[in-house]
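protien #1 (seq + structre)
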Amino acid sequence: MQAAARKYSYSIALATSLLCLQPLGALATSPFDVTVGVGSTYNPANDTISGGTVSPTIGFTTVSDLKNDLQQIDTQYNPASAVVIRAGYRGLPLILQSAANSPSVTLSIPLIGYTNTFAAQSSRDGNTTDLFNYLKSSGSDLINQIQKKLAEVSPIDPVAGNPSSMQSRMVSDDYDRNFTQFASNIKSSDNTTQSNSLIGVGLSLGSMSAGGMTTSTSTLPLSYTVRNDLDPRKQWTFYAPLSASNTEGAQSYTGNLGLAYRFPVNDEWALSPAFGYGITGSVDLGSAAAMMAASLTSQYTMKMDGFDLAFGNMVGLYQTTALNAGDYSSNPNINNTVFRNGVLLSFPTNVMGSKMALETSFILTNYTGSALYSNQYEELGVTIGTNKSANASRSYVRAGATLLSGSNGVSGYRLNVGYWF
């Protein structure tokens, strides 16, 4: 009997890892969790298992942990028992049930309205095998539905819906590259006409908390900017930021390639269209996706008495696209229009005899379109560094910190330093 239980539970673990699901935000201490009820029933209205013997909820860091350990938790199961297994994966419950004295196995995912019963075989082991084969061979539609739902219900989804996700990083990168990195001194008092290309390197460290879990992210923001010889304010920028994130021990990685062009409308106003393509993947979290981006950023700077006042307004389209790897294909069809607006104050200052600029900023970001776990962020930032005038031939360095809060209880901070030379 225990062998049958192990086989049944192990197949469910494999199915869970294939589907890339997530635990409910309320469980919040591990990316994955499992609860088993023997002689129990499941109530989808409040996501609970009641009656019979219900095991303690066990948390797991990675899909591999789940597969290795799930088979050991059901010691009271026998082939005639009614059994409910709730597998959580980053916020989305996956439910498998068998009625008493029945060989059939039912898979349900209440949050996407999916139910399928497997009953062709004479044993639960056989029907569980059919379930697993179905999940492997079924079209990508079910997996894509699950992935799209994860962006809505998961506080730690690598693709979208939280400040550490690929989508959010692409949004903030586009805005920072085309506004905050150049906002002050677009109308420069620096009279040099010499220009040169710029290589940009830096480091950004961030920590974001949502749903009781914390994600730490390290980003290397690489870029190369070509400035026009006649008007250095006209600039082409090629960028390739690379990020690595850790969510309660689970690793994920993101890369982004893109191109932006910055041109002045007049001495105070500049526009910057940008296009990008990003890929994220996590073996630990069981997720992979690609995303395309197109944005337009407006920067308007007013020279005031003793300080600069700059306004940055961006609208962007961010949409997942098909990601193919061998027999695997995924596109969760996440499509958002993003509005990011901010104001920046720049004050000249002197640090140890060096002329610098101290800047403070407030930025508001709103996501429309596909449902997300968090669709609004507010950021308060401060930076200090040397002159970043578009007309200046010299290099510059900036360092700063940002505090972030968002809808659905999201909070966090970022520390960053950048050097352009």
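ok now protien #2
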Amino acid sequence: MLGRLDMYSEHIPNLDLFISMHIMKEATQSSKIEGTQTNMEEALLSKEDVPLDKRDDWMEVHNYINAMNEAIKMLEDLPFSSRLIRNVHKVLLSGVRGEHKQPGEFRKSQNWIGGLSINDAIFVPPVCTSIPELMEDIEKFVHNEQIFFPELLKIALIHYQFETIHPFLDGNGRTGRLLITLYLVSKGILKRPILYLSDYLEKHRNTYYSNMMKVRLENDIETWFKFFLHGIIDTAEKGVETFQKILSLQKEYEECIKALGSRSANALKVITELYKHPMIDATGVSEITGLGTVSSYKLIKELERLEMLKEMTGSKRGRIYVLEKYIRIFD
């Protein structure tokens, strides 16, 4: 399934247009596991258009997007390492809840998982003084070529171990989930970051946590491995399905645009840009096409008539339009 998914990274044109949406979906789902409630439409808004009471959630999602993009760039010069992990964590916690909890630094105090205090915690991670050694152990395991261990089981074990160490005061879950994709790219299993497990882990959240606890309390690594591998299969299958739907929608839109005659060239410019960021206003249409305001609104009206664009604010001013069918594929 990973091979089938990876194939799309070679054969789909304009893959970058689609990867940004995959990362945005991953960001919203990963943050949802942490209790952040931002949907795809809200995540696509600019910061100024987000209600004040939702801006923290919006920032957490966008930090996740920035962290993924930054980490992929870092992999060009930096191996999968503690340094890379700390850099990712620093971006994740920049300017959001947790920004005062040592972003980019391993914790210097004890933390715990579940419960109001350490006394009624579900699980207490290792003491802070042992973290550098334990993270170094993960790093050695990543780069150990003397002992053969299948790469998918390797990242399953790394993810479990990272979450068990819980090396940061905050943001361990988001960082640990992001590392799965980074590892697969760093090992060349995926050419591009197109596999994201957060949707699967969110849907099976209780099983996810309980299977990790079974390893800690009962030494049951096999059940965790099976759960993780099933998640890889399920996610890769859905990824292939998503790409197939996107290609089908592209063809549908291209056929519709042909019917616009003299407006078809500008319509294609707008729709192509919307694959990357499927939300726009009249000003955005003007910037992409060079059309004046009146002509931009006429083009928008045509795209609404063809059921490509849909207005989402319901207001008469400051109207924002979304490429609705495209968003629904990811949502």
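The longest strand covers residues 309-311.
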